[in-house]
Amino acid sequence: MTNRLADTKSLYLRKHAENPIDWWTWCDEALETARAQNKPIFLSIGYSSCHWCTVMEGEAFSDLAIAQYMNANFLPIKVDREERPDLDSIYMQSLQMMTGQGGWPLNAFLSPDDLVPFYAGTYFPVDPRYGRPGFLQVLQALRNYYDTEKEELRQRKAVILEALLTSAVLQNDGSQEVADQELLQRGWEVCTGIISPKQVGNSFPMIPYGELVLRGSRFNYQSRYDGLQVSTQRGLNLALGGIYDHVAGGFHRYTVDPTWTVPHFEKMLYDNGQIVEYLADLWSAGIEEPAFKRAVAGTVKWLQREMTAPSGYFYAAQDADSFTNPIDTEPEEGAFYVWSYQELQQLLTTEELTELEQQFTVSVNGNFEGKNVLQRLHPGELSETLEVALSKLFTVRYGATPDALATFPPARDNQEAKITNWPGRIPAVTDTKMIVAWNSLMISGLARAGEVFQEPSYLELATTAAKFILDHQFVDGRFHRLNYEGEATVLAQSEDYALFIKALLDLQQADLENADWLEKAIALQDEFNDFLWSVELGGYFNTSSDNSQDLIIRERSFADNATPSANGVAIANLVRLSLLTDNLHYLDLAESGLKAFKGVMNESPQGCPSLFTALDWYRNCTLIRSNTEQIKSLMPKYLPTTAFSVVSDLPDGSVGLVCQGLKCLPAPGSLEELLLQVQRSQNRG
User: Fold this and answer.
1) How far is CA 18 from CA 42, 329, 413, 551, in A?
2) What percent of the chain is helix, strand and coil (3-state, nearest 5)?
3) In DSSP terms, which residues pair with 360 in a beta bridge?
4) Is the dihedral of CA 628, 630, 631, 636 positive or negative?
5) What would the DSSP string read from start to end of 468-509?
6) Are 467 and 516 in contact (CB under 8 A)?
7) Which of 31, 77, 248, 462 is most buried as measured by Cβ atoms within 10 A of its Cβ?
8) Angle, to 10 degrees, between the axis of helix 207-216 and the axis of helix 609-620?
9) What is the pTM of this model?
């Protein structure tokens, strides 16, 4: 027997459809029912490729005793964080306030009358272990607390709500006096330190940090850090590390070690889009490392083969876990990707295995539960022998050679993964929903990589995905965030607007003769301003003014997480739009947005690299006006605060015009002179 979640479109929610828990989705009826029955709400938030979410689904949420108590004493609500990042952000902040840390699954207990949380945690085991109480014990204690400690409950909620409201307002505490150039240098210094090599902990891509460090390296700050070296090392860690799938392309989510060796194996679209753009930028900055180009090309092939819908948009994610045998009851982490030494001996010639051992982390004992995750030991080109060896591994995994396999159909759930007669290994489940923000990151990455590596096919792939969004994500004149097999749903949030506008501007810069991209960006920016701009505070709210009734606060996202902050990207977009349209209203909004977040940038620079990128755009924005031929020669170069505009009526003897914000420089007579003007314009501090 299934519960309400069986009828949802979310893969994550449907994974809980056979739980004995009487799950609701987040909706008015659920909230009203909780109030009418005076039941505290158990809100559980996760996502489809979350390993510990999957563990808890199979343990606590499948336990009959827990379900009986839960159903009688709480109103349980399941939320897919990828559908509702606004809810996730609010209650994640609450969790961090209560415990000092966050993570998923995010499990919070809310009062039904005001939706304010009074307790929160992450993974709860069925029985006490890992230093954590058993989940039934937690439920019993919290229901008793809710019933008997009314005054303490009221005071506890008041403290949490006040903290949430205070954080939403973002008081500046006098830091407005900090000079922009000083603030930018301080932010660069702190963020460079964050991604400098470390000796402990997990390793995440953290691309907004790498991007800021790379762009800031042109300032030649007096610092203990070499920005170009730090940003290059981040690229090498990504392109050589076990975080990259050297057999079939695509980047995993992160590694569980500081050496970039053993990944947590899920592949997220948002990581891959950002990394493609970052590696292309490194190449354009003069770091022409062959491993960067190979990783980009391999990731695009993976995207085309496994992550592109027939209608052209990109799927959201692939799970970390997969089955080794159709009769297994539970999938294994990394099973699709790792290799035993015995397998390698059987599959490869002696010469191939010897060279693989010389160039990759391969050993008899392995580096992950007796198996081998492939990590490159050296940069540079891979030999033909190694490429043949990796092709053999690809063939075993997929049941066909790389050249023969143009598309590989997704397994949409565990049941489909197990019953399909796969020609190779059983693949991990793919979440096939379309998320505008994540597609936008990949569109931007493809557009930039197409420019840098002179690969028109990259731009074609980006263009098709962007056209799908333009054609399908507007319903009754409003922009929508998700698409499930052709059906648009959920009003767009700030990250969807900001990142898709950026993608449209990136396409416009890569395809200068197509005026539609800029026109679409302007129209979408108007909607963004109308529904999400905060007139009183500055910056953009996470959710629109007509879709925030069920939120206890309206947040303005400024912190970078796995994806760039919406306001950081949005403010940079406004500067770019002001350059391309000569409309100074955009520049006024950008200035207001930076003013709104200046206190945060000064007090917590470690959390908001994208805002510093926006500040760089605001201070050093540069427009190059020239003919198409000259601009195309400039596109592959690293010019991080520069926009291009095609003009036909240049001054006699000139190759173009360079404009610094609101003024233009003397017309240069040569490309060398133009580039010198651009370099100076981009460093006006």
Assistant:
1) 18, 15, 13, 29
2) 50, 15, 35
3) 376
4) positive
5) HHHHHSEETTEEEEEEETTEEEEE--HHHHHHHHHHHHHHHH
6) no
7) 462
8) 30
9) 0.95
**What would the two tokens of residue 470 be?**
């333009």
Phi, psi of 540 (to 5 degrees): -110, 135
Residues 6+ apart with CB under 8 A from 183: 598, 601, 602, 605, 612, 615
Beta bridge partners of 657: 625
User: Rounded distance, CA 540 to CA 178, Å?
Assistant: 23
56 within 8 A of 124, measured Cβ to Cβ: yes
**Cβ within 8 Å of residue 32, ≥6 positions away:** none
Which residues does 125 contact at the CB level (< 8 Å), separation at least 6? 59, 60, 132, 134, 135
User: In 115-194, at which residue ranges do the beta strands (DSSP E only) sit?
Assistant: 117-121
The beta-carbon contacts of 27-33 under 8 Å, at least 24 apart in sequence, are 28/550, 30/75, 30/77, 31/112, 31/115, 31/550, 33/75
Return the minimum-mean-pLDDT range out of 4-8, 97-101, 601-605. Answer: 97-101
- At residue 106, the 3 state secondary structure works out as strand
Q: What ranges make up the beta strands (E) of 349-494?
A: 430-431, 434-435, 474-475, 478-484, 487-491
| Tokens 């390993």, located at residue | 51
List the structure tokens of 70.
């839960």
pLDDT tens, position by position, 399-428:
999 999 999 999 999 999 999 999 999 999
Residues 6 or more apart in contact with residue 588 via CB below 8 angstroms: none
Give the chain's length: 685
Each residue of 152-189: pLDDT tens digit?
999 999 999 998 988 888 765 554 567 899 999 999 99
List the structure tokens of 130.
């890992």
End-to-end CA distance of the chain: 66
Q: Give per-residue burial for 643-669: e unless 16+ CB within 10 Å, then b.
A: bbbeeeeeeeebbbbbbbbeeebebbe
Query: Can the peptide bond before residue 105 be classed as cis, meaning omega within 30 degrees of 0?
Result: yes
CA distance 407 to 517: 29
Q: What pLDDT is attached to residue 173?
A: 53
DSSP string, 272-323: HHHHHHHHHHHHHTT---HHHHHHHHHHHHHHHHHSB-TTS-B--EE-SEE-
Cα gap 80→10, rounded to integer Å: 7
Q: What is the C-alpha separation between 374 and 509, in angstroms, rounded?
A: 37
Least Cα distance to 444 among 427, 428, 468, 461 occurs for 461
Task: Give the whole-angstrom CA distance, residue 354 versus residue 468.
Answer: 47
Identify each DSSP E strand in 538-602 by its residue range.
none
